[in-house]
UniProtKB/TrEMBL annotation:
Coiled coil: none annotated. It comes from the Bacteria. Residues 3-227 form the Nucleotidyl transferase domain. SUPFAM superfamilies: Nucleotide-diphospho-sugar transferases. This is Nucleotidyltransferase family protein.
Length: 237
């Protein structure tokens, strides 16, 4: 099994932590970088190959990870000369990738079974599988429904339930056909194109532990919770 980790972003939302370090190398707990945790998880799940799509401060990532042998994996690299969006880096890699592979952001802390995502993707026959997570959004205001300048309904500080993308995907290489290598391609654009073509993605619903550490609040939470959750996050790794 093969994974592509998207690790080329500048981590603007996580400054000042990312002023000198690329976001995937910010520390979690006392001993680990987030990227190390992800690589250990992938190796334990049976992934033997990984491509790191790097850009901002990419040489630091390359120096830290090397060839991946310390985790029992073969790691290679793809360098973004300019930002290509979430899916754009894959277009330049297409000939190096297997028929089905995992794609994920490099700043995720989760106990998701990555191998199961890829297995379920293959079984579904879908062009894209999106790992999803339930999130409840609290609105701190009274919400009005209006019609022709008349208030027809009112809800005081409602909560709304959504399923959000976790930043982990199963992808088939053929799904990238028709897109031009070297041009940006966002996850949103790909999903909307698939919906327009009536070829919808498959949803992999997950109810375990997940944090996107792209925001300072979530990064602080990850550090506060890591010690108590280390055995869960690194089980078998």
């Amino acid at each position: 099994m093969h994974a592509v980790i998207l690790a080329g972003g500048k981590g603007v939302r996580l400054r000042p932590y990312t002023t000198a370090l690329p976001k995937p190398l910010v520390p979690i707990g006392d001993q680990h970088a987030i990227l190390e945790i992800v690589l250990r998880q992938l190796s334990a799940a049976g992934f033997t190959g990984c491509t790191l799509a790097i850009g901002h401060l990419g040489e630091i990532i390359r120096a830290y990870v090397g060839d991946g042998s310390q985790w029992g994996m073969a790691v290679d690299y793809a360098t973004e000369e300019s930002p290509l969006g979430t899916m754009g880096p894959l277009l330049n890699l297409k000939d190096r990738l297997p028929e089905d592979f995992l794609v994920m952001n490099g700043d995720i802390l989760t106990d998701l079974d990555y191998a199961d995502v890829l297995r379920r993707h293959r079984a579904s026959g879908a062009p894209l599988t999106i790992a999803t997570y339930a999130r409840k959004v609290h609105i701190d205001f009274g919400v009005l429904t209006t019609d022709a300048s008349k208030v027809v309904a009112f809800t005081e500080k409602p909560s709304m339930d959504y399923r959000v993308s976790m930043g982990v995907y199963g992808l088939s290489r053929a799904t990238l056909d028709g897109y031009t290598p070297g041009l940006p391609l966002g996850f949103d654009e790909l999903v909307l194109d698939l919906l327009r073509a009536q070829n919808p993605p498959h949803a992999y619903e997950f109810e375990g532990y997940w944090l996107d550490i792209g925001r300072p609040d979530d990064y602080d939470r990850a550090n506060a919770e890591f010690t108590s959750r280390k055995s869960l996050l690194l089980k078998g790794a």
